[in-house]
Amino acid sequence: MKLIRSTSATSYLMYLCTLLLCTGIVHAQIDGAIYAWGRNNYGQCNVPDPNSGFVTIAGGDNFCLGLKSDGTVVAWGDNAYGQCNVPAPNSDFIAVTTGAYHSLGLKSDGTVVAWGRNSYGQCNIPAPNSDFIAIAAGRIHSLGLKSDGTIVCWGDNYTGQCDVPATNSNFVALAGGRYHSIGLKSDGTVVTWGSNSFGQCIVPAPNSDFTAITAGSYHCLGLKSDGTIVAWGWNDDGQCNIPAPNSDFTAIAAGAFHNLALKSDGTIVTWGKNNDGQCSIPAPNSGFVAIAAGAHHSLGLKGEWTIVAQGLNDSGQCTVPAPNIDFTAVAGGSFHSLGLFSEGAIAACGLNDDGQCNIPAPNSDFIAIAGGMYHSLGLKSDGTVAAWGNNTFDQCGIPAPNSGFIAVAGGGLHSLGLKSDGTVAAWGNNNHGQCDIPVPNSGFIAIAGGEYHSLGLKSDGTVVAWGKNTSGQCDIPAPNSGFIAITGGESHCLGLKSDGTVAAWGNNFYGQCNVPAPNSGFMTISGGSHHSLGLKSCGTVIAWGDNCFGQCDIPAPNSDFMAIAAGGHHSLCLKRSYSTSVEETESCEIPGSAILTIVSLSPNPFNQFTGISFETQTSAHVTMEIYDVSGRRLRTIPVGHVGAGLHQACWYGCDDNGNNATSGVYFVCLYGTGGEPQTARAVLIR
Q1: pTM for this structure?
Q2: Cβ contact 193:181 at 8 Å
Q3: C-alpha span between 401 and 414 (Å, rounded)
Q4: Which of 314, 361, 393, 585 could anchor a disulfide with 429, C-beta 3.0 to 4.6 Å?
Q5: Confidence of residue 305 (pLDDT cuts 50, 70, 90)
Q6: Any idea which of 15-29, 93-107, 459-473 has the lowest mean pLDDT?
Q7: Nearest-angstrom CA–CA distance, 627 and 564
Q8: Comparing C-alpha atoms, which of 567, 517, 520, 134 is closest to residue 336?
Q9: Coil, helix or strand for 16?
Q10: High-pLDDT (> 90) share of the chain, %
């Protein structure tokens, strides 16, 4: 586990930026299902039902531990020494780890609980049992990291694996091998001690820039800030031979004689001994958010991001195709729906009379989606746009050159694309001038389409509208400033202001422009034919306007949503499957409930990175996520466990794949265990 330690030093902030944002960690604040493979002689690969709600995993010799989002621990496999008997009360756990035949759990109050085989005192926590922020275990010894950066070891010490070298300070992570131990310092160096029979304690030069560590029986792995892995020690089974390309890794885990590494695209790479199939990853190898290794088996945790749909379903537009899991974005057409998988594929459902649900091959590498009335758009990672469905007005005919696009939007029978140079391209039906971009065609950072009108958001926070204006949908209300997001309905518009308020204008026959009070705390917006949606920073959705088909009836519980999209007469919400917020449909401000508070973002606006200062009232697991103004999640940064106090992190302006985000407004969301999520707005200027 990696963590942030309280500090006020600028130099340490820069270290934290590298530690937290250039890498991932084994623990993930995402609720999901566990996949297990390899040796199964004790049922260690048979995950108990219900296989959901897990946030982190650990593997022992022949048993496993899974930590649920509610703080409970599930254990299965070999139980000869009681290593699967979680002591009561089984609650408030924030981390778990395993030795050969014993288990450790870290509680939210900083205490450690140990159970299982205790022949060498590996379960006897040294006093004072307090202030722990991370735990690790070797075969028959245990390690704990204190909030002051010191490491405590207990259990078998035959080879000196419990003798932490001087100076015992400034540690930020730890790991245990069979008879040796490893510690990661805040300056990115690795310290090792204990048995060195196979060179497992000789860190290869240069001993610098490490961000994560793990240990097998007689070998070690270190993850560097550039996403490469270094391995040393016993190599008879090839466990130190990193597969090419040695790049883009975000997390590492070591078994007895094999390894797993997680790539930034959610795939797992394995190498080393495979006599029990511990390196044979089950298909599909995608969507993983965390990894763990037992002695001869492996574990992978998949994320669960599901789509919730409500409203008119006459064409199946609210019937999400299976598997309803691992989505990262949603979009709605008039009578069809689109969902974007984390692996880059698109799923579609609903009316398909014009082929608007027939995703063109190859269905891969998409990073954004949009729906028109009867057509669909997808943006590829290489900056090209694909379009399909009704093409009566050539709304699917992408104008040349089909390159350099960074966003797409669908109008009724026309399409819009935003280029990386800040210009807008429009094509399709132009009977009301909805494709005639006003001059100067420059400085745009976001686009949106209505039925017969178009919208563009400029980098100075002003909105430009053009096309049909019979209902005033192109008349931006004063003051035309401070906007950070826009969306268009059939004949009405919504604009999100930098202070979290929503402005609405145009057709209001159904009340679709009457933003419910309190008009505050909004994070993103979406417009349907005659209804509107707003997502609050606490994860609740507000809907208003026409509700004849129930499109404004948000399914309970109204919490933990992370993106929204409005179709013609239906609504789509993307839901995270773990709960970090208290349900609240009117206001997200609950006095006294904040586990953490965002203190500042600096610099803001920023060009290369912005530092996020936040304060926690208690110890908590913290995850940081970055969203664009459309509600699409760009980056998930598992910060890890932090103690009470002031902490710092940063965002380097890139997405999960390392691609630079474009100029615009982004939302920085921090989630802490048991409390309200906190959101701040960051402005990126390239």
Answers
A1: 0.60
A2: yes
A3: 18
A4: 393
A5: low
A6: 15-29
A7: 12
A8: 567
A9: helix
A10: 52
